[in-house]
Design goal:
The protein has 6 helices and no strands. By secondary structure, it is mainly alpha-helical.
Length: 208
C-alpha cells in the first residue's frame, strides 16, 4: 500500500475546477457569436466578466499556496496549472473583444474555419472541466490529456485552413489583418489548453 504525507485538502481542487468551469462559460459565449442577431457587445462584456472572475480565482489560488504549509502537490506545479488555466481564459476573452472591437460580425458571415476553431475550444473546455475534479485522486486522467492533444491537432488543421482562406483574396487587406489577429488568439487558446493537459500529465506522473 502506498502512503502519502501530502494533505488531501479540497480547496486547491475546488479552485482548479472553478477555473475550468469558467473556460466552459467562455467557449459557450464565443459560440453565441455564430447565432443570428447576437448582441456582440453583450458577449464581449460577459466574457470580460468571466475573465475577471478567473483572475480572482487565480489570485485566491496564489494566496492559498502562500498560506499552506504542505500543499497537495508541488507548489511550482500548482502555480503553473493556475497560471495556464488563466492564460486560456485571457485568450478566449481576447477573441470576443477583438471580434466586437473590429466589427467583424458586420461581415456577411465569419469564416467557417473560425467556427470550427471555436468548436474545438468548446470541446477542450468541457473535457478539461470534466477532468479537473479527478486531480484529487490522480486517476483516470490519461484519456483526458490524449484527447486534448488530439483536439489541439484538429485546431492546428483548422487554423491552417483559415489562413489559406484569409490569404485567398476573398477578403480585403484590412479585414485579413483583423481576422488574422483573431485567428492567432484562437490558435493560442488551443495551445494553452494543451499546456494545461501537459502540466496535469506531469503532475500525475510525479505523484503516481
Amino acid at each position: 500500500m502506498k502512503f502519502s504525507f501530502r494533505p488531501t485538502e479540497g480547496a486547491f481542487y475546488e479552485l482548479f475546477t472553478r477555473a475550468a468551469q469558467n473556460l466552459v462559460r467562455g467557449t459557450e459565449l464565443l459560440n453565441e457569436l455564430a447565432l443570428p442577431g447576437t448582441e456582440v457587445q453583450s458577449v464581449s462584456e460577459r466574457l470580460t466578466d468571466v475573465e475577471h472572475d478567473s483572475d480572482q480565482i487565480t489570485h485566491d489560488l496564489y494566496k492559498k499556496i502562500n498560506s499552506t504549509f504542505i500543499t497537495p502537490f508541488d507548489r511550482e506545479d500548482i502555480y503553473s496549472l493556475g497560471s495556464q488555466l488563466d492564460d486560456v481564459m485571457d485568450h478566449l476573452e481576447a477573441v470576443g473583444n477583438l471580434i466586437y472591437l473590429y466589427g467583424l460580425t458586420e461581415l456577411p458571415s465569419l469564416p467557417r474555419e473560425m467556427h470550427e476553431l471555436v468548436n474545438v475550444l468548446d470541446q477542450q473546455a468541457k473535457i478539461t472541466a470534466d477532468a479537473m475534479p479527478r486531480l484529487k485522486t490522480m486517476k483516470n486522467l490519461e484519456e483526458y490529456w490524449i484527447e486534448i492533444n488530439r483536439l489541439e491537432n484538429d485546431g492546428d488543421r483548422a487554423y491552417r485552413m483559415l489562413l489559406v482562406r484569409l490569404f485567398s483574396g476573398e477578403y480585403d487587406a484590412l479585414t485579413v489583418l483583423k481576422m488574422k489577429e483573431v485567428a492567432d488568439e484562437l490558435e493560442a487558446a488551443c495551445d494553452a489548453f494543451e499546456h494545461v493537459a501537459n502540466t496535469i500529465e506531469t503532475i500525475t506522473v510525479k505523484e503516481s
